[in-house]
Each structure stands twice: as C-alpha cells, then as structure tokens.
Amino acid sequence: MSKDFDICVIGSGAGGGPVALSLAEAGYSVLVLEKGPWFKEEDFSKDELACCRRSTYTPNLQDERHVLEQSDGEGGWEALSTFDSGWDFWNGNCVGGATNFMSGYFHRMKPDDFRLLSTFGAVEGANLVDWPIAYEDLEPWYDLVERRVGVSGRIVAHPHQEPRSSTGFPFPPTVEHPIAGWIDRACDELGYHAFPVPRAILPTDALARRGCAYTNYCGSYGCSTGAKGSSRAALLDQAVLTGRCEIRPQSMVRRLASDARGRVTFVEYMDSKGTVERLDAQVYVVACQAIETARLLLLSPGPKHPSGLANNHGQVGRNLLFSAGGSGTGELPYDKLSSDQAELLKVRGLFVNRALQDWYQYQHPDSGKQRKGGTVEFLFRHANAISRANAQKWDDGELVWGKPLKDRIHAYFTQARYLRFEVFNDWTPVDDCFVSLDPAERDKWGLPVARIRLGYHPRDLDVGRFLSRKGAQVLEKLGAERVRWGVSGSPPQNLVAGGCRFGTDPATSVLDPDCRAHDVDNLYVTDGSFMPTGGSVPYTWTIYANAFRVAERIAATLGSPPKGDSDPLDRQSKESS
Amino acid sequence: MKRREFLSSVSLVLAASPLTPSAHASDHVTSGGSSLDREQWTCIEAIQDHLLPSEPGAPGSRDITATAYLDRALADPKFDPEVKEFIFNGIGWLQEIAGQEEDRLFHLVEPDRREDLLQQIARSEAGKRWLSTLVTYTLEALLADPLYGGNPDGIGWKWLSHDPGRPRPTPDKLYGRLGRT
Questions:
Q1: Spans of chain A, pLDDT less than 50
Q2: Which of A97, A340, A365, A401 gives 20 to 30 Å between its CA and that of A538?
C-alpha cells in the first residue's frame, strides 16, 4: 500500500537529524515535522534580548507551559505551572531543536556507563540497570559523529580516557584562550589531568560549513556561521540537499493514531494556520526531546494501547533523567596579575576547552567503595551583559540602586574576569522523576501539557559536592578569589533524557535495543528518551550517535529503497577522511 | 515565589492602605507605544533617573533613553499583561506614598527626598520586587542592542568596555519579528 513517505520523523533535534539524513541519503523519502519555525544562519545574531531574555526560540509560556512537581519537604509534592513560577522548561523549539543553542561540549559516555548496575552494584531507592548494548556497539557511531557533525579536539591521555577506534579527532581544537594553559599548569601542580574538551564546533571552514567566528557568544545563541554542529546546520541542511527530505516547520503533532494490531496508522498535526493535517508513513520516528516525546505517546492512545502508545506496561515517561551536579565561580582580579597577564585574560572569543575526569570513578572516602563520579568542566562566565549587570542589583538579598548600583556594575565588568566550573554527574534514575499528563493545564491547542515530577536521589548531591570541591580547588590554585560553588537537586532543563528506556524486557522498558517500541513495530524513539542511565557527561553526542545507529536498523527493516543508492555513511566517511 | 504572589502583592498593600487607590493606572493615554499616560511617563522617568543617575563619563537612564525603551517594551503585544499591570499599579502606589508624605507627585519631590520614598517602598517585599522590575528594564536599556530603543550609539557598552559580539541584529531580525513566516 502506498504511503505518503517512507519515514516520518517528529522532531528535528539531535534525535531527528541523524535519522533524516541517513535515511534520505539511503534513498528513502523522509518527512520531518517540526513544531517550531525554521531559523537560518542569517536569522541568528548576538542579540541578548532575542536570544536570552524573551521567548524567541521557545514558546511563550502564556501559550504553552509545563507543570512541575517539586518536593514540599514533608513527603508530598507541590505542583506549579512554569507560567506561574517563571521557571521556563522549554529548550529550542525550532528546526534543529536545542542543538542550535548548545555549547557543544562533546564527551562520549564511557564503557562502565553502559553497565552501571553490574559495575557499581544496586543503590537503594534507585532504578539502576545496565544498558542492553555496550560501549563497543556505540563506538563506531560516536566515531561517525566526529566526522559528520564535526567534532574538534585533541587526544590527551588521562586516567578515564575511553577507547577509540580512530586515533585523533578529524578537526583540531578551536583556538584556545590563554587560560587553558593556566588551568593545565594548576592541574599539573595538583596532580590532576586536565584535558582538551572536544567540541561540536568547526575551528575553520569544513563540511560545507563556515568555521567559528570566535565572537564570544556561543552557548544559548544560534550559530551565525554554521560552525556549531547543530542538527540543522550539520545534518538537516545536508538531508534536504538529497532531494528526498522535506522539513515542515510549524507543524505540531498532536497524536499518532494506531490500529487494532497496535501499529501506527497515521500522524495528525496542526500546521501554522491551525489546520489539522494527516499523513502516513511506513515508519514513524519520535524525537521531540524526552519530555515532549513521553507526552506525545501519552496523548496517543489506541485500541491496543489504551493508556498511551507503547505504554501498556506503564513505563512511558518513567525514569526521566537530567544531569546532576552543580557549578562554581571564582574571580580573577586584573590587579592581582601582571599587566601582560591581565591583557591576556581580557581576550574574548577564544575557548577555554578544559575539563577533568580524574574522578569519573572514585573511591568513596567513607565506605571505601568504588563509586561513579563525573566530569568537571571549566568555562568563563557567559558574556551576556544584561544578565550580568542585572545580577549586581542584589547585595545579600537587598536591592541596590543609584550610584552604588552603577559602581558595582562598573567594577564587575572592568576589574576582574570570572572563571566557572560546571559539574556533570549521573542523575540517578528514581521512581519520583517522571512525566505524566497534567489533568488541568492545556496548551493553546487544547492539549494537556506535560507534568513533570522532579524527584532526585540524595546520592547525586553527595557526588556533586565531591566533584565541586575539586573544581573549587583548581580555581583557588589559579589564584581565583571569592570561590563559591553550589550543588542542588534542581534539574537543568536543557540536559534531559530518559522516559522511554530501551531494554530487553517489555515490562520494564518501552523500547527494544534497536529503540523500536516493544509492541509497536513501526514506531521508533531516537532522542535521549531511550537512555536508562545518562552517564556523567552532556547527552548530545550520545543521542546523535545512537540516532545514527538506529537509522541503520530502520533501513535494515525497510528493505531496499526505490532507488538503491550506495551506503551514504560509507560515502561520507570517504569524503571526510 | 509564585507568580500570583509576585504580581498581586502590590494591590494587597494598596488595599490595606488607608487611602483610596489611585486612579492613575486606569486613565491610559497612549504615548510612544505602550499605554503610559503623561503623568506615568514623567513619574517613571523620575524613578529611572534615580535608579540609574547620569554622571560625567558614566551614562544614566536619561542618556540611555530608558523610559522610551520601557515604553516600547511594554508595547510588545507579547509582553505579559499582568507584569504590565504590576508596573502600572506600582506607579499608583508610589504616587500615593509621595502624596501622603510630601503632598505632591513623585517627580515634583526634591531629589534627596525621592530616595527616602523609594527606600520606604523597598521595605516591603512587593515594593522591592516592583523596583527590581524597573531596574531590570533600565539595565536592558543600558545594554540591549540600540535598535531596541535604548543604549544609543552603544553608550552603555562603551562605559563598561563590553564587546557585544557580532553579527549585530538587523531591524528585520529583532525579537518580535524573528520566526514570523
């Protein structure tokens, strides 16, 4: 029976882009439905207002919101909508999704991340499991991402360097700020092993994209050169060039219909005018980022799936993950440095690119047991001027204005530079971190919004504090003053995964090891939802790699495309080698 | 802080005040774009002037056209109507305290007495949040791209030796226009 498309991909971020590109290159017809608009490179500028202070790339909270449940401290949960709290839980809603706005810190997960339970043992109150695949299964796809998305870096041996099939990165590191050398020296003296952070940023023109312009505004901003390896710039633009991939922006999918056999029969979406459209495909791929993916499945009951698509075991939305950890800051006052050093420190636009993984596993000081640790990443405080100035209006909870405010702002901008660290450690999966449909709040289309319970495991804070002390120690060694750090269970909404675990047991997982729904054989999920545990690194590289892996599995089930092209992945690897 | 608490406290304070609420906020005369009437405009200008005073070599709210910036921000159709009302209500509240304490409108009060009135406002959590909101928009006027109506010729960036990065937005790519197909 003829279908409108071979593959319909819902969502165009890190989970959607690799599938669209791989399958379009393999000769299949691909449709990508993206809820948000399609910004191009020329739309992105260093406009702090548009970027970071208004809802430009994310929905207006009056129209679309989440409901967040947080512990009330007495064993209960307090629910509040993000419209009411002002805590915006959206990430990029546009073609390319949140990858447009990432900083592109690219770390692979490590072999033991794929077998947390068997390596470190069970943790009380945690739903730890091993992955159904091993690092070795994903390694070739991590490698492919380096070449296709464009990962720049330099290999330096350190105690937890993961095995690699290629000797080095295909692109040299982005140009580094002098402070990278200072961090290296401080870490050397402390006996730590700082290493250059791989970045999904092209240092110079390559892959039919322009290289980095080094203008000091990267994370949170859309890239105006295409150097950042967003799903849009690195993958979807290429997919469209095949002539077999169509992207429909401003197309909000409201449900996946399914039949008595449980197979998806069509997708229903609203276009920019609010008109309801339907279309069908042989295979449906959901990649709306973890929270919205779970929401869409829950919004899609069918005759064989009365509680939501692929949810017959009540697993959809469960074991949601964020990234645990914390952050710290230290001041490097110019007047404590030689004038040459101060001038070097003032240089803008170059990359710090340093991290520590010495404690990716560590021996717990009290128990003596080996424990999972994480990553400490170093970076300058973001250059955003309004947010930095506005932070100066508070002095110990008191509002400052007038000349004292001006003096504080002027000193903040001109007398020091601020070096930060961020800690990434595992968000231990727990029962109290999950997505459901809110019974009351609806979005502008009348659909129930996602309700997210934000419980966490207390161990995450303990690990975060252990790592933060190490980060703070490095800042102090560098001569930083007023070093402060904080760790909390408050999740970063931009680092989200889980909710549709992959596994071998349909009773405890939503997806099989190929990321196909256990009981819906034409439905795949390729965003971060599949991850049963998340590792102690940002997720994007792993999501990209896995989505490329799943695309190959999808192609294998579809049989030969109408016009049998050669394997696009092989073709590309020759081009970029 | 819940939104309702954040935004409704001013009216709660007003309700508890012995004086009747000001009618200023309901008498809107459209100005440059939003709905600041002339008296509100003058009052806001005086407050912003106090929050970020002009000094030689260090721009203040007048130099960065902070009130015109705020007026334009308030005119954004997506601007949260409740925050807008909160800002307007606060003006009424300040005028009432100015009337009570000084027997005149805020902008006619002597500059050194203005500080006392703002300090008085800041003693309540609601008043502090209201002033903080005005500081935020004043600092946006200091450091946002000049195309938004503040920071003329990048005067705020120059004062702070701040490099705003490139490319700069163009008039057709400003917030509010982006993403409209």
A1: 564-577
A2: A365
Contact A386, B143 (CB under 8 A): yes
Report chain B residues whose CB lies below 8 A from the CB of A45: 166-170, 173
Q: CA quadruple B44, B174, B169, A346: dihedral positive or negative? A: positive
| A489 torsion bin: left (phi>0), alpha (psi -120 to 50), beta (else) | alpha
Residues A185/A337, Cβ–Cβ less than 8 Å: no
CB atoms within 10 A of CB A323: 26
| ipTM (interface predicted TM) | 0.93
B contact residues 95-154, partner A, Cβ 8 Å cutoff: 115, 118, 122, 128, 131-132, 135-136, 139-140, 142-145, 148
Strand order in the sheet with A481-487: A195-196, A354-356, A374-380, A416-425, A326-333, A481-487
Helix (H) or strand (E) holding B46: helix B38-51
Four-CA torsion A555, A556, A558, A561, nearest 10 degrees? 60
| Total-model pTM | 0.94
Question: pLDDT 10s digit of each residue in chain B, 181 long?
Answer: 566 666 755 543 443 343 333 333 334 334 556 677 898 899 999 999 999 999 999 999 999 999 999 999 999 988 989 999 999 999 999 999 999 999 999 999 998 899 999 999 999 999 999 999 999 999 999 999 999 999 999 999 999 999 999 999 999 999 988 875 4
Residue contact A385–B164, C-beta within 8 A: yes
Residue of B nearest to A349 (CA): B165
How many contacts, defined by CB atoms under 8 Å, are there between A and B? 140
Rounded to the nearest angstrom, the gap between the alpha carbon of residue A467 and the centroid of all alpha carbons in its chain is: 21
Provide the token pair at A464.
């975060």
Instruction: Report CB contact under 8 Å: B51, A401.
Output: yes
Cβ–Cβ contact B50 with A under 8 A: yes
Neighbouring residues of A383: CB distance < 8 A, sequence distance ≥ 6: A216, A217, A348, B163, B165
Q: What is the pLDDT of residue B5?
A: 66
- The ranges assigned to domains in chain B are 3-173
Residue with tokens 């940002």: A538
> Which phi and psi angles does B4 have, rounded to 5°?
-60, -40
Asked whether the beta carbons of A7 and A283 are under 8 A apart, the reply is yes
DSSP state of A299: T
CATH topology of domain A1-65+88-152+224-323+499-577: FAD/NAD(P)-binding domain (3.50.50)
Helices (H) and strands (E) counted in chain B, each on its own, are 7, 0
d(CA B118, CA A400): 11
What the block records as the tokens of A430 is 């727990």
Tell me which of A34, A43, A45 to substitute to probe the interface with B (most B C-beta atoms closer than 10 Å). Answer: A45
Residue tagged 């700020």 (tokens): A177
Distance CA B83, CA B81 (A): 5
Tell me the three state secondary structure of residue A5.
Answer: strand
Would you kindly state where each structural domain of chain A is located, as residue ranges? Answer: 1-65+88-152+224-323+499-577, 165-197+325-425+457-490
Choose, out of A401, A406, A407, A441, the residue to mutate when testing the contact with B (most B CBs < 10 Å): A401
